[in-house]
Every structure is written in structure tokens, then in C-alpha cells.
Amino acid sequence: MRLTVLTPSFGKLSSTPIARAAALGLELDHRTENHPKSGQTLIDALAGAEAVLVGLDTIDADVLAACPELKVVAKHGAGVDNIDLDAAAAAGVTVVNTPGANADAVADLTMGLLIMGARRIREAEDSLRAGRWEVFFGTELTGKQLGILGFGRIGRAVARRAVGFGMRIAAYDPFVPDHAIAEAGAVPMSLAEAVAGSDFLTLHLPAGDEPLLHRELIESMPAGAGLINAARGGLVDEPALASALHEGNLSFAALDAFATEPPAADDPLLHAPNLIATPHIGAYSDIANANMGSWAVEDVVRVLQGEEPRFPVH
User: Fold this and answer.
1) What are the D-isomer specific 2-hydroxyacid dehydrogenase catalytic domain coordinates in residue numbering (predicted)?
2) 254, CA 20 to 30 Å: which among 45, 80, 237, 298?
């Protein structure tokens, strides 16, 4: 059995996934250069492959048609928006992912970004390094409302952490029933209610064809509110967000995901005031890296041996 590995993050922070693959008799073929791949470059890398482990590589109908030997596509993570699921089903290719493997890692980063923005840590550090000794008044989290858009594994992990800081939790999720949100200790709200009524807003939903947070919703956020996006860049109308920051309507925005990655150096959003930006590092922790890689290779082996995978994507 052989697995073509496209994502360079596989086993990067933990040797566990590579050891697990060896124990299962799975040979690894690393093709991690020029990640992410798409089109003919990807087709060439998958010549004769039965299994592939992808990061942000684009698995579309053309790739699947050109790789008839392919039996399983494993996502090194949870989001499968880069995989054409309908085309995979039509081609008889099983798609698996690793839901929850990086939930705690992303939740930790989300809280770090929230605290960094609320307490103006980046501004204070920049000032100190510039030779000044200034006072920066920030906002405490206790008693503030955190609006969580997307109340799956990551959203709930964020909620558990935020409750420890004394925050009130409001949640919107079109895929989770209101009673399930309430049972988890959050107040279910509509999208408009959560956006307009929250002191801080954090995003944990898959991206759609259009931004979830469009200009009108961004403009409805309370004056001085903060926004955190550690999910997908396409969730936010980035020009509208840049405008809100330039106009001072928001106290900060903290982004770990951008519509185009990496963003261009002259992207206006990168030059907006009170922006905290990180290069999509949410899943890059030791435990998450071990979980994602190990769970992926285990399911690949299951599929290649004709067994049901643990995490099929339907």
C-alpha cells in the first residue's frame, strides 16, 4: 500500500504519523514541493496513485478523471472545500478527513488572538520596541458577549475557553439546532442578532460562494467590537473589513485566514490599522499535527483494505 503525501505539514511537528504509517505497512511517497498543487501539476504528481493525502491542493473533476487508479483522498484537516465531493462520489473515490483533530489548537489560537486584540498587545509591543513607554487601555473579557459563528467542534472548544474568562456566549450555526446550542451553554441567535449584539465575534464556519460577513453585517457590528477569523478567508468581505478598520468602527480584527493565501504584500487589508495577522497557523500544534496525520493514514489503510473508514465525508 502506498500513499502520496502532498501537504508539507504532514508529520512536521510530530513523528507519530510517520511511525503509524510504517506500523500499518503504508509506504509514503512525499510530493510536497510547490504546495498547494492543482491542474496538470497535481495530475503528474498523482500518476498511478491509489491514495493521496492533501492539504489545500485542488481535487476537482479533471484531476479525478485523469487519475483512474485513485481510491481514496484524505484531507489533512477538516475542511474539504478544495475537494469536489460530487465528482469524487461519481468516480467511486472515497473522501476522508480528520474532524476535531485540530479543534483545540484552533480554539487556543482564537483565544490568543482575542486577548491580543482586546488588550492591545501588538500596539503595546510595537510602541515599546520603538523606544516609547506608553499606556494602552484595553478591554476586559469578563461580562462581554462573544458571538460564535459556527458551533461545531471548534466553536464549542472556543466557548468552553471563553466561559473560563467569564464571557457570555451567543452562537449562530445553520447546521446545529437551537436546542443543541442551548444545551451546550450558549444562547442561540440569528446571524444578524449575533453580529449586531456581540462585543467580539469569532468565525468557525466553512466558506461559501459569497462572504458570510458582507459589508452590511460588518457595518452592523457595535462600535469598538473586535473580529477574529481563524476559519476561512472567504467568510469575510475583506475590502469592507479594511474600511471598517480605517474608519475606526472596530477596535481590531485578528485574521489567521485570508481569501487569497498568501495575501499580496500591497493588500490594503494588511495595511489597515489595528489588524493582527497570522499565516494560517491555527492547526499547527504538536498534538493537532500528530492527530491529523495519524487519523488520516489509519483511514487510508482502512479504505485500501476494503474496510469502512472512521471519518468518511458524505
Assistant:
1) 34-313
2) 80
- The torsion region of residue 77 among left (phi > 0), alpha (psi -120 to 50) and beta comes to left
pTM for the model: 0.87
Q: Which of 223, 194, 114 is nearest to 158 (CA)?
A: 114
Active site residue 280: yes
C-alpha cell at position 127: 510602541
Point out the residues of the chain with pLDDT beneath 50: none
pLDDT for position 137: 96
- 142 within some domain: yes
Tens-digit pLDDT profile for residues 85-133: 999 999 999 999 999 999 999 999 999 999 999 999 999 999 999 999 9
Burial class (CB in 10 A: 0-12, 13-18, 19+), 35: middle
- Decide if 85 contacts 112 (C-beta within 8 A): no
Residue ranges in 135-237 assigned as alpha helix (H): 153-164, 178-183, 191-197, 215-220
Choosing from 76, 153, 232, 302, the catalytic residue is: 232
Q: Of the residues 35, 119, 161, 280, which is catalytic?
A: 280
Tell me which long-range contacts 258-266 makes (C-beta under 8 A, separation of at least 24). 258/233, 259/233, 259/234, 260/233, 261/56, 261/233
Q: Which residue is catalytic, options 27, 261, 307, 310? A: 261
**Domain shared by 179 and 241, yes or no:** yes
Q: Classify 108 as helix, strand or coil.
A: helix
Other Cβ atoms within 10 Å of 289 Cβ, number: 24
Model confidence pLDDT, tens digit, residues 163-176: 999 999 999 999 99
